[in-house]
Amino acid sequence: xxxxxxxxxxKTYPDGTEAVRGIDLSCAEGALTVLLGPSGCGKTTTLxxxxxxxxxxxxxxxxxxxxxxxxxxxRRDVGFVFQFYALYPHLTVRENIAFPLxxxxxIARERARRVEEIADxxxxxxxxxxxxxxxSGGDQQRVALARAMVRRPKxxxxxxxxxxxxxxxxxxxxxxxxxxxxADSVTTLYVTHDQEEAMSLADQVxxxxxxxxxxxxxxxxxxxxxADLFVAHFIGSPGMNFAQGQLENSVFRSGEFSLxxxxxxxxxxxxxxxxxxxxxxxxxxxxxxxxVLDEYQGACRYVHVQTACGRWVVRTEEAGARALGQRVGLxxxxxxLCLFDGESGKRIE
Amino acid sequence: MSSFLQLRGIEKSxxxxxxxxxxxxxxxxxxLLVVLGPTGAGKTTLLRVIAGLExxxxxxxxxxxxxxxxxxxxxxxxxxxxxxxxxxxxxxVRRNLEFPLRAPGRQLGEGEIAERIAWAADLLHIDKLxxxxxxxxxxxxxxxxxxxxxxxRRPRLFLLDEPLTNLxxxxxxxxxxxxxxxxxxLAIPMVYVTHDQAEALSMxxxxAVLSEGTMLQVGTPESVYRNPxxxxxxxxxxxxxxxxxxxxxxxxxxxxxxxxxxxxxRAAEGTVSTIGIRPEDIAPHGGSGGGIVRAVEDAGSTWVxxxxxxxxxxxxxxxxERDYRPGTDIAPKVRTERIVEWRGSVLRDT
Lengths: 349, 350
Prior knowledge:
Order of helices and strands of chain A: EEEHEEEHHHEHEHEEHHEEEEEEEEEEE
Oligomer: heterodimer
Shape of chain B: globular
Strand content of chain B: 25-35%
């Protein structure tokens, strides 16, 4: 099942910078895995090592069981899509798409057939005889995608392929990529810093930071049960609400606020976290605060409440706006609470 | 609400390109108006005309009752914050903030200058950065200082051109909230330009939707979201985008050609319309069937389902209490009262 596996993969640059610190990762055949993290987390270096554009300092890259860590890029059967389209400006769209096939020695008639087929799928058929500079950004990125797909590689590698596109185009392109990937079931490794994009696309999300993997799971799992405070902060928009306090005899206390947590074996300093959609505005009780902002979002509103534990956000589908300055309580769905260790920041089960 | 700024029939062309086509717009004394539109809609040109950086080819511009169309930018007393923060890198934050206050012609005492800097620094949470060279600031800090430099002047009008666009998603979200909180304590009228629908919905008192130099609709976020004047406006707000169908009324139901019935209507028999239904106004269950889940996207607090239904691809927001898999049959049900209707067939080939 583990079609692509990284084992102890590391990259240390000559100046001593440890870009990737021995990561282990496995990707099921046909799955889309997203490497997600802030800039400098090691996600792009990891992708470039799989592509063969960086030589690993240590570790293995197994594709269908074969270690290709020391292979040159052209021997690796991968299709690469970059943030910048990297099309050949002097070639037409048709020639750009056909280019990898020519390199593989595919005969002209077969080449033409496969270019037409992929152009048809990606709705590029009317653009085949144009040159890249006459295309919009979205069209250029579709050509880059076609060029990666036309070879029918074992693996797609995508490095922020939506990075330079406008917002609405980005959504359309995201759906197109996912549809094509689902249709062909090609194992895909996809890099982004955008958590929303990662969540919406991925079969498996890998959150990276400081050259290491913080958590690896389905998006819904990472969202509901982040492994540590870093992941909890990074995933979700608006972000998770937090309160620092103490846990004693299964009761969480932070200043005046206390909350009984049923039976909880941990004690001491903890951070409590909960997502905005699991907090409810109440008149009596709860974590007390004052409404400072009410953001309309169409499908919902985000009500911001200043509390002794900081500014909290509540997602509500209530119709009317709340009055600013109103005193309210915040009631939490206890089964949705997360607790993080006060020292290590790790999630307490 | 008395109006501070009035635009009437503003025209601007660059060569053969019409950038602004007869723009009418009013801005209240204490109002935040968001101009929303895609790249190339004319948003920045509109701001530059208001600031006096472009001379319109036609139309009138009034500020506080005075025709200012021929005033130079300085006399208009307008502050302009750009997408790209233009700070002097070697100067400290304090010196950058003081700069507009020490401009020739401004006769401010040292006490007044110090007081204004302290006020702006406090509002923007940059008081600890005042003595740092601006080259050492992060992107978010720089943007705060750039905004600070606009507000210390206490201008009559504040123009913001995509101030959050170049920032990463997390920072954009937190600065959006800070800006929304800030404007409550400022009480300066603002025109805020963006292509980001979430920013527009959350920050605006009113949204003005601009497309190809033409104002398509002006209204409160809720009215534009709920009652968009055209499919084009409807698609600008909401994520995922509104679902649009070409329909015909038959037996009190809207029918999608070649698809099936979608919801009840009181329209006369045989009325042809275009209707819009927001993804959150379709429940994945309770209807008469016929939907097939094609893809499931995790949107954090909800799922976004992409469903083949009635012969087209439809977005449906579903709560996370249930799980969905591609290939599953579902029975979508529309909240009929939320259907937006545009009479006649107005769907353009977009």
